[in-house]
Design a protein that fits this description.
This protein is α/β, with parallel strands linked by helices. Helix content is 36%, strand content 14%. Strand 9 and strand 10 form a beta hairpin. Helix 5 runs antiparallel to helix 6 and helix 6 packs parallel to helix 14. The longest helix is centred in the middle third of the chain and has 25 residues.
């Protein structure tokens, strides 16, 4: 019996986010655990000069967004309520009040979307991964990394909750429904191509369909333009393209995972005009790394989250803890590129900006704004 591709993607995504959440909880923190927002002020791809041969570049780089500020497409738009939607789990949910919104997921994507829709003033709390400047003063409803706190949520008296399956325990979500709060579950699978769909799902749940169409279209157009811009500077021959892999590391918990096909990281790397070597060697989803796979992959560049890199003691610590990485072209040339945990895999309205920052780090390393 064949399994539909959509079901395979959903399963891979569910396993990925579950493993991420578990590892974050195990080390007592996660993306932006300090509550700091992502850095801003990096160089724009349009303003830098790419190096002649990106494979020959040496040394680590940090990808920094040129502009991390919000750019809402509307100013407190009027919601058409009640809004009834069928969520990603097939549940029919009716939302009658959007005055107190909680948008929660492991990526910080859904809360960013609410703000970009122009409904930021309606948000009453946040998850750990939502750390952009405009939301970081809102009360947290997650503890121990990414664990939902039922009491904290109920204290905020939300009139609607938008979430996915990346946060737990799931009993807390069911508790919110039992308390009479409409809970809309969006698709946990994230990649470059699905960013617009996620935007629309959040907008529909909040009764602002037309505004969602506007933001989804802007997101799609921005991504398409950015991918085209990157394609012009990336090597045209596949054999000349950077071989890139995404490593998820958490030194406190001894967690070292390689992200592969259907993890979202593969989509990001493809959009950057590079070769996702994990997918190339048949690595599906997210699995603990092994020396053989790492050496076989032979990446030119390793992508990591900033807090993850810090947790292992920086580039030196990473190469010491994972000797197999040191044996790859990336390790030999110290080509480790890090980016803020709350940005690199967010796959929301800032996707094009994330691609821009990463492209600068890959193709014009050492460039500063």
């Amino acid at each position: 019996m064949s399994v539909p591709a959509r079901a395979v993607r959903a399963l891979a995504s569910a396993l990925t986010v579950a493993l991420v959440a578990a590892s974050l909880a195990a080390c007592g923190g996660g993306a932006a655990a300090s509550g700091d927002g992502a850095a801003s002020g990096g160089a724009l791809l349009a303003d830098v000069t790419p190096v002649p041969d990106p494979k020959a570049a040496t040394g680590p780089s940090t990808a920094v967004l040129a502009d991390a500020a919000l750019h809402p497409v509307a100013d407190d738009p009027h919601a058409t309520l009640p809004a009834t939607v069928t969520d990603a789990q097939g549940t029919s949910v009716t939302v009658t009040d959007t005055s107190r919104v909680l948008a929660l997921d492991i990526y910080g994507s859904t809360s960013r979307i609410v703000y970009e829709l122009g409904l930021g003033d309606h948000v009453v709390g946040r998850d750990t991964s939502s750390a952009f400047a405009e939301i970081k003063d809102k009360p947290l409803v997650t503890a121990n990394g990414h664990e939902l706190d039922g009491e904290a949520i109920l204290e905020l008296a939300p009139t609607v909750i938008i979430t996915d399956t990346s946060l737990g325990p799931w009993d807390v979500v069911l508790q919110m429904r039992d308390a009479g709060i409409p809970v809309v579950v969006v698709d946990p699978h994230r990649d470059v191509d699905s960013a617009g769909k996620l935007v629309q799902a959040v907008a529909d749940a909040l009764g602002v369909h037309d505004v969602g169409e506007k933001l989804a279209q802007r997101t799609h157009d921005d991504i398409a333009a950015k991918v085209a811009q990157i394609a012009k500077i990336a090597p045209q021959e596949k054999s000349d393209r950077l071989r890139v892999m995404f490593l998820y590391v958490r030194g406190q918990a001894g967690v070292y995972y390689l992200f592969g096909k259907e993890s979202g990281a593969d989509s990001l790397i493809d959009a950057l005009g590079a070769v996702d070597v994990a997918s190339q060697i048949g690595w599906d989803g997210m699995k603990p790394i092994n020396d053989e796979a790492m050496v076989k992959a032979a990446p030119d560049v390793v992508l990591v989250m900033t807090h993850g890199l810090e947790s292992v003691g920086g580039v030196d610590g990473l190469l010491e803890r994972l000797p197999a990485v040191a044996q790859t072209p990336a390790g030999e040339k110290r080509r480790i590129v890090d980016m803020d945990d709350t940005e690199i895999l967010s796959f929301g309205p800032t996707t094009a900006d994330v691609l821009d920052a990463l492209a600068v780090a890959l193709y014009a390393p050492g460039t500063h704004a």
